[in-house]
Amino acid sequence: MTARIDMGMDGAGNPVLMDLEELLATRLLVQGNSGSGKSHLLRRLLEGSAGLVQQVVIDPEGDFVSLSEAFGHVVLDASEHSEHEINRIATRIREHRASVVLSLEGLDIDAQMRCAGGFLSALFDAPRDHWYPALVVVDEAQMFAPVAAGEFSEEARRASLGAMTNLMCRGRKRGLAGVIATQRLAKLAKNVAAEASNFLMGRTFLDIDMARAADLLGMERRQAEQIRDLERGRFLALGPAVSRRPIAVRIGEVKTGARGGTPKLTPLPTAAPEDLESLLFAAVEAPPPPPPPPPPRVTSEDLIRSIARPILQPATPAPAGPQMEESERAAIISAVLAEIVADPDATYRTAAVLYQDFGLRCRMRQLGDPGLDLPKFRKRLAMARAGIFDEGDESWAEALELAGQLPEDMLGAFLMVARVAKEGMPCPSDAELAEVYGTRSPGRVRRMLSYIESRGLLVARVDLSGKRTLTLPNLGWTTAPAIPEIDHPAPAPMRGSADMGSLL
After folding, report:
1. pLDDT band at 496 (very low <50, low <70, confident <90, very high)
2. Which listed residue, of 367, 429, 452, 456, carries a Cα 20 to 30 Å from 415's Cα?
3. Hey, what's the torsion of the CAs at 319, 324, 328, 331, to 10 degrees?
4. Which of 346, 295, 490 minimizes the C-alpha distance to 358?
C-alpha cells in the first residue's frame, strides 16, 4: 500500500507530499526555534497519517493530547502511573497496535527522561510477533538525547539517550520509525540526529545551528543565511520521503490544536485608575468558592482495557457478588506468586517493584485486598521462589522458624535447599541458588552458604568426585550429591500445582 501525506505547498503553489512508506524506512528530523511551527508540522503529519499507521507520541508539554478527541488516541498520563506500569502498558501498545500519546507534563525533567527512556525501551524490546510499523514522534528531542550533561542525573541521561539511540539506529527492523523534533541541533546528540534521512529545517538564528542545518541539507555555508529568514510555518525539506532536492514548504492547516496556543495581544481595560484601585483594594467579603473536584484517576487497568479494546460499550454497574472465601483468596495469591516467579524478568527486580506488580495482578483477578503488606509479601515471595506456595502447610513450620534466624535476602535460598533436601533431590547448583538469591555471582552464593553453615543451620560436604551434599541437621534432611557447577532437573511440582496451573 502506497500512502502520501499532504504537508502543504511549495513556493510555486504545488502540493508537497510525504511518502509514508519511505518515511517509515528512513526516519525524520525536524528543527526550528521556539515559535517556528515545529509542533504545527508534527500535528499536520500525525493528522494526515492517523488512519494509516499506528502512532506513539512522546509529549513533554501535553500539547498533543487533543488528538484523542478527533482521532481516538489513548492518552497515557505519566504522572498517574508508576514506571513499571508504564513499561507494561508500552508492551501492550505494540501488541494491540494502539495509537497513544504519552503525556509527561506533570513530571520534572529527570522523571521525564527516566519515564521516556523506559517507555521507548519497552517498545523496542517487544516480542518479534509484535513488530508492526509505527510512527514514534518525540517532541523536544534535545531533552531526551542531550549532547552533554545538564540539570538531570547521569543515570537518567544514559537511560534516555540509550533508548533514543536504539529508536533511531536500530528501530527500523522492529517497525519503529523515529520522528524527532528539536529546537536546537547543537543540543541534540549527533549519533541520534545522524540516523535520520529526511529533514525539515525551520527558522533558527544561531550560527552553529544554521551551519549544522546547512550541512544536513547539503547546502553551502553562504546559503545557510536563508534559514534565518524563514517565516513561521515555513520549512526547508529534503529526503527520500519528500524531495531529492531542498524545497521550501509552507505547512498546511490542522484540525486540532494545542491546549495553550500562542499568546495574542488583547486590549487593556479602559476603566479609570480610581476604579481599578477600588477593585484591587476592595475588602474580601467571602472566601472564593472551592475548586471543582479533580477528575477521577484513570487506573492502569482502565488504560490496559482501553488499549486492548479501543471501542468500549457503556459500562453498566456490576451486581455485588458474594464475599470471596478464604480458600479462593489463598488460591489466587498462590497463582499470582507462581506467575511472578515464572517471569524471567522478575528475578533481579526489587521486592518493592514486584509488590506493585503483585497488587495489580490480584486486582485483575477481582481480588482487591490480598491482605499482604510488604514484609509479608517478601516472605511469601521467598517461599514461592523456593517452590513453596502453601503458607499453611504444617510440614514447613519448623523450616520457616529456622529461616527466621537468617537475613531476609537469604530466606528463599535456604528454603529452596530445604525443599530439595526434604524430597531427596540432587543438590541445587550455584546457578540455581544464584537465581533464587537474586544475584549473578557464584562467589556470593558460596559466601551465603558459608554464612548459613556458620549459624549451624547447614552442613556442606564435597566428596572426592566433586559432588556436593547439603544437610539441614536440625531437620534431618539431606540433598542427593551433585556437582555444584552443573544445573540439575527442577524438583517435582508441589502438591496442588495443577490447580494453580488452571488458574494461570
Report:
1. very low
2. 367
3. 90
4. 346
Listed residues 251, 272, 302: the one ending a domain: 251
In eight-state DSSP terms, residue 266 is -
**4, 15 contact by CB (below 8 A):** no
What is the C-alpha separation between 428 and 444, in angstroms, rounded?
15
State which amino acid sits at residue 400. Answer: L
Is residue 492 within 8 Å of 420, Cβ to Cβ?
A: no
Q: Which burial class, exposed, middle or buried, applies to 211 when counting CB atoms under 10 A from its CB (0-12, 13-18, 19+)?
A: middle
Alpha carbon distance 321, 332 (integer Å): 17
The number of angstroms, rounded, from the C-alpha of 80 to the middle of its chain's C-alpha atoms is 13
- Measure the CA–CA gap between 413 and 429, rounded to whole angstroms: 11
Cβ count within 10 A of residue 279: 10
The residues, any chain, with a CB within 8 Å of residue 354's CB and separated by 6 or more, are: 340, 346, 377, 381
**Residue 137 to residue 28: CA distance in whole angstroms:** 9
Q: Are residues 124 and 12 in the same domain?
A: yes
pLDDT of residue 504: 30
| Cα distance between residue 341 and residue 335, in whole Å | 10
Q: What ranges make up the beta strands (E) of 418-486?
A: 459-462, 468-472, 477-478
Buried b (16+ CB within 10 A) or exposed e, 156-177: bbebbbebbbbbbeebbebbbb
Neighbours of 425 (CB within 10 A): 17
Give the domain range for residue 51: 4-251
Parallel, antiparallel or unpaired: strands 198-201 and 134-138: unpaired
**pLDDT one-digit tens code per residue, 77-86:** 998 888 889 9
pLDDT tens track for 200-241: 888 887 777 777 777 777 776 666 667 777 888 889 888 899
Q: Distance of CA 302 to CAs 32, 262, 320, 367, 489, Å?
A: 37, 34, 20, 16, 41
Rounded-to-integer distance, Cα 424 and Cα 297, Å: 52
Task: Report the candidate in 157, 147, 150, 73 with the shortest Cα–Cα distance to residue 116.
Answer: 157
Q: Which helix (H) or strand (E) holds 425?
A: none
Residue 201 lies in a domain: yes
Q: Please tell me the number of Cα atoms within 13 Å of 309 on its side-chain side.
A: 7
Pair (337, 202) in one structural domain = no
* Region at 13 (left for phi over 0; alpha for psi -120 to 50; beta for the rest): left
Comparing 216-230, 406-420, 430-444, which segment has the lowest mean pLDDT? 216-230
State which amino acid sits at residue 33. N
The sign one gets for the Cα dihedral 402, 407, 411, 417 is negative
Instruction: For residue range 90-105, list pLDDT tens digits in order.
Output: 999 999 999 999 999 8
Q: How far apart are CA 123 and CA 163, in angstroms?
A: 10
Contact 406, 316 (CB under 8 A): no
Number of domains the chain is built from: 2
Residue 446: CB atoms within 10 A of its CB come to: 14
